[in-house]
Amino acid sequence: MAQVNGHCDAQFQSVRDAFSKHILSGEEHGGSLAVNIDGRDVISLWGGYADAARTQPWNEDTIVNIWANTKIVCALAMLKLVDRGLVSLNDRVAKFWPEFAANGKEKIEIRHLLSHSSGVAGWDHPMTLEAMCDIESSTAELAKQAPWWEPGTASGYHCWTYGHLIGEVIRRVTGVRLKEFVANELCEPVGADLQIGIKEKDWGRVAELVPVPGLTDFPAWAPNSIPERVFNPLANPSFANESIWRQAELGSVNGHGNAQACTRLLSTWTLAGHGSDFVSKDTASLIFEEQVRGVDLFNGMYLRMGCGAMSLRGDGDTAVDQWLPAGRVCQWGGWGGSKHVMDLDRRLTFSYVMNKMRTEGPVTPLVRELLKETYKALGIEI
């Protein structure tokens, strides 16, 4: 029988009730939830099953592929360089990576990479999983291409390429690969059990993904359209089971962690200037420095994009405003339903990850319920 473990402040009992309801009923397979406020974990829960057969419990140290939430980690790595004065958001990418200037990309800036607005959102030629995981070669291919739209004029979700682009800049600046930089400079200093890729010794605690039917029934995109070109290769949950995937450095999609680890890292930014000196308050505020606002060329949603790989709460006009409170609040999610929210005004960090992959988006009914109950406990209706 499924169980729920962990702790939850009495003030947030309704959040625990919602999480437990879905886990114990079997509606949710397995997952973890963490909410940090003012540096303290007011909620830290986990439960359900880590395998499709429901024989292995989801334990405190269970981790899972977090898909696009990896982009948040990748963006924070770049912002760490900004915090150290090694990079500026207005620096041209070619300053550090001269080859990138080819084919009209000489004016693309760091802020364009961070906000999905560089126009280098995919590969011009057909891509396979194996070729994409050859980071050196596939990154060099991106340097040769022309942008697909005028950089900085619109966002277009950089599904696969976000980590390649930012990772290469980090390597050129520091001499260290993205995976190593994230481990040594972000995760280990704050004790976050989070990795890009996954060490083979940890494979035994990786939760098995459980996709719902229809998860890969993608729209019939128009030939040569931005969405069709971005989703190259077509995503498949089975990728995450491949050793080549787990060993690769895919800063866009193959991060592994749990809600507790994600909250541990993200809260150091949410609390910048308010109890955390991991980065400066000014650097953390760059996440909310709007770069583009409008309909995303890939997903068709109206978004405000800042410099943290996360979409920003708007004034009632963006796709996320109906389920986030007003203020300096940003969010991003991973394929299947995971969600992370950083609320700087309330010094709150929310993370939810799971292994059952759903089709609803940009927020699943369960996550919406968890967010609603979390903020309701603080006297805020959303």
From TrEMBL:
The record, for InterPro entries, names: Beta-lactam-related (IPR001466), Beta-lactam/transpept-like (IPR012338), Beta-lactamase/esterase (IPR052907)
Residue ranges of the Beta-lactamase-related domain? 26-361
The record ties this protein, via Pfam families, to: Beta-lactamase (PF00144)
Q: Could you name the domain of life of the organism this protein comes from? A: Eukaryota
Record protein name field:
Beta-lactamase-related domain-containing protein
